[in-house]
Amino acid sequence: MKIGKQTIKLKNTPKILETSSAVGPKESNGPLGIYFDIKCSDVFYGEKSFEKAESKFMKSAIDNLLYKLNLTNEKIDYIFAGDLLNQCIASGYCIRDLQIPFFGLYGACSTFVEALMLSSLFVNSGYGTKVLASASSHFCSAERQFRLPLEHGNQKPPTAQCTVTGSGVALLVPHDIEKKVPVVTYVTPGKIIDMGIKDMSNMGAAMAPAAFDTIITHLKDTERKPEYYDAIITGDLGKEGTDILIELCKNYSVDISTVHRDCGKEIFDLNERDINSGGSGCACIAAVFSSYFYQELKEKRLNRILLVATGALMSPISIGQGESIPSVAHAIAIENEV
Amino acid sequence: MKIGKQTIKLKNTPKILETSSAVGPKESNGPLGIYFDIKCSDVFYGEKSFEKAESKFMKSAIDNLLYKLNLTNEKIDYIFAGDLLNQCIASGYCIRDLQIPFFGLYGACSTFVEALMLSSLFVNSGYGTKVLASASSHFCSAERQFRLPLEHGNQKPPTAQCTVTGSGVALLVPHDIEKKVPVVTYVTPGKIIDMGIKDMSNMGAAMAPAAFDTIITHLKDTERKPEYYDAIITGDLGKEGTDILIELCKNYSVDISTVHRDCGKEIFDLNERDINSGGSGCACIAAVFSSYFYQELKEKRLNRILLVATGALMSPISIGQGESIPSVAHAIAIENEV
Predict the structure, then answer these.
(1) Residue A70 located in a structural domain
(2) Within chain B, which residues score under 70 in pLDDT?
(3) Whole-complex ipTM
(4) Nearest Cβ partner of A194 from B52, B96, B101?
(5) For chain B: N or C, fewer Cβ within 10 A?
(6) Verdict on whether the full-model pTM lies above 0.90
């Protein structure tokens, strides 16, 4: 049921039965390393290209989720998935091997929450009883596609972010499955916001206004205060974008500073070389939610979170043609039942 | 409600209230020219790049649909859209200006039916009362992205297809809107099928097995015979792909030859120079359904159609890395009420 301007209330509160994550070496050695399921010390993951490796990260995360639940791929009704690569090839080639009816998504770094929203809505409506949401990214495939070949060894400005290598996946099931796991209560799909930022090395600044718009709309639509949530978690605004988001909210007389967290700031040690403003990429929020935050929810250290993934919808071509960076943010409320 | 293996029955049968299409010069001068709403004689559409022109084709189609219904963009709940360009920039930049909550999709040439399926399911569940589905493609932006720069003037083999320039859009509304228009009864999202085709100039052959799989699954799931439909319409298999699809069905003892039609074969005069196997691209089925077939339904020359969009999920990078072409086909049953 739609409430307010753009939020949907999920009256059947589907459950997130299980999650799984697979990451590369930098993520494994970072502050959240102990939480990831699969940690690979090789960015190639035994494959011959970064693109194939990215696909394998997603495949491993999905296979591991199925293994945890003793499920086979035929039991899955639908999968919603996407990634950052041209023509979403990481997802396409991964899901080819799974034989699950597939909805391909492109929401840049917002893809994971876009997938979570749609799979939750599918289960809420009874369109399926086991629906997967998945997303991936890879530092090396993203660098050469969006920026410069790795061999170039270029330096980056402090506002730049470091694409997360890995994948995260979640399984949505109906509420009547007997297991105490977090449920989805609301989703707020975002509008595209573009404040005219043209600097591809400052995605945080480009995406923060979209996060602001979606968070404020969600709070209005649901008549909730920021404090309702134990955490309002953005995907990958990084240091720069986080500061802008908090200031935008403050100027609007909404203080989210005490509950705001950002996966991009938590996945890496921000003092480490080349991390600059923090992590980014579809896998940032996908892997961090599917490991650390899901566990925090299950162990009741967090009980109510608003997960907000932001995506920058430009391409190197559009930037080359003088365009600015349009961004979108999607939000999903995930809560423990009392 | 899910029925059979992968089909969903839409018990509230949402209505396709209106459609709109915008196309370029080659399409305007083709056999279906009289059916399109907006016909532009300039592939640049007054813009400075093909990419911006593609975005404008989608924008014009949407604006025209809103104009036909005397609606403003604020009245639209959600939009599902996508295109062929890297990072789906045609859709992103178009929808930036519309301020409608946005779900970005990537299904290659299957995108329009993917969008139609999701918007129908949204309306069926009451998540929105006015939901748009849209897709675009552009011959010139697709050529330089997937194949060779136009300036190269390369010849193509007879199995190659010609990307349609334009866009198609449809508005889904609840069944209780009083207007005699076609309704959506079933959707069958497809699995990814890959029969090992590696020839980027023969997409029809790569996509036909996916169409076969989805059509057969749909018929089984719904317990319908091909003859139930006045037309089973594929998106853009072209001559080559159509022949393969019909033969695959025949080998499976299912004869669709009398009801099968293909938008790629109908949008262009197949004897014209450089058309080769027919039209392709997201806009092929999007523009042909949103003009010709929608009118055929409204005027009851057709009463039951199965619209099947196929998409090839490779990228030039994956083909360069030796991969074959994975394909997907999504089907939606659209019917007049008796």
Answers:
(1) yes
(2) none
(3) 0.98
(4) B96
(5) C
(6) yes
